[in-house]
Amino acid sequence: MTIVESDGIDLARAERKPRRPFRNISAKIASLPMVLTALVVFVGCTVWTVIYSFTDSKLLPRLSWEGLGQYERLWGTRRWLVSLENLAIYGICSMVLILLIGFTLAALLDRKIRFEGAFRTVFLYPFALSFIVTGLAWQWILNPDFGIQASIRAMGWESFVFDPLNSPDLVIFGILIAGIWQGSGLIMVIMLAGLRGIDEDIWKAARVDGIGTVKTYVKVIIPMMRPVFVTALVLIAAGIIKVYDLVVAQTAGGPGISSQMPALYVMDAMFKNQNLAQGFAASTMMLVSVLIVLIPWAYLEFAGKKRG
């Protein structure tokens, strides 16, 4: 009798339980604005941009089809090719150096040093500044008349030369210095949070086994922090693709076209040259470059988890 009654109670509860589409209905209603924003603003505007990149729109968008003409002109423009080359140099160097510097600073702070809070604030402070402020600050620092070069020459080294922003071959590295200075603090904080999540027993076991600190980081700690490194890489990559403010504040794309970036090319094509279709074509190519990197990574990441 008891079994029958319990079965009846379970059946009644199952009947009263809401169907799957109506579960957590309040949470779903609350998330509607975010979903609509993502669909309309991000997806909708992306599709709109791709469509109008095949037109001959100038000052105003118009559905006058031109096919691949905008893309042919884009890839035949030296300024666009130079911007891609600069983006590759800036992207590879900044990704490697920011990760290396951020992790090194985090590892040093994780050793429970004195005044850790002060050091953490100092290293993170550049990230609180806007890119325009950072660019202007480093433009002054790298200025040969009153920056690093002038300061060292005032110490007696008259032959010292350090003027990257006025050198076509070195200007991208002057922008890179400012980007690394601003971005390393955020990555340091992310890495420090990951290191603080490592169980202290792992370090004790490594010491008992006689494993050195560097080898423990390489063989044990870094593999355990794989999700943290993925998050850091995504944040760095997002900053690399849209780098614009630093270039405008430091060089405005000069000298000549030696510090051009894709985002600067897009903005100049759309607003300075009043050629919307050319700007849309460049934006679409930037999107394609992101997808080329993102899709294989997402497939390996999530397909691997499913197989696991």
Structure notes:
- This protein has 308 residues and is an all-alpha fold.
- The chain has one domain (70-307): MetI-like fold (Orthogonal Bundle), CATH 1.10.3720.
- Helices cover 73% and strands 0% of the residues.
Helix and strand topology:
Elements: H1 2-16, H2 25-30, H3 32-52, H4 69-75, H5 78-109, H6 116-128, H7 131-141, H8 148-154, H9 171-196, H10 200-208, H11 213-224, H12 226-241, H13 245-250, H14 262-272, H15 276-307
Helix pairs in contact: 3-15, 4-15, 5-9, 5-12, 6-9, 7-9, 9-12, 14-15
Keywords:
Carbohydrate ABC transporter membrane protein 1, CUT1 family, 308 residues, transmembrane helix, MetI-like fold, mainly alpha, disordered N terminus, cell membrane, 15 helices
Q: What structural class should be given to the helix and strand makeup?
A: mainly alpha
Task: List the helices and strands in order.
Answer: HHHHHHHHHHHHHHH
CATH class wording: Mainly Alpha
Tally the helices: what do you get? 15
| Quaternary | single chain
Tertiary shape:
flat
Q: Could you give the count of β-strands?
A: 0
User: Structurally, how many domains make up the residues?
Assistant: 1
Would you identify the CATH H-level superfamily? MetI-like
Largest sheet: none
Extract low-pLDDT stretches: 1-7
Q: How would you state the average pLDDT, rounded?
A: 86
Nearest-angstrom radius of gyration? 26 Å
Please bin the fraction of helical residues.
over 70%
Q: Note the gap between the termini.
A: 45 Å
CATH topology: MetI-like fold
GO biological process, one term: transmembrane transport
Subcellular location: Cell membrane
Transmembrane segments: 29-54, 87-109, 121-141, 170-195, 216-241, 280-300
Main location: membrane
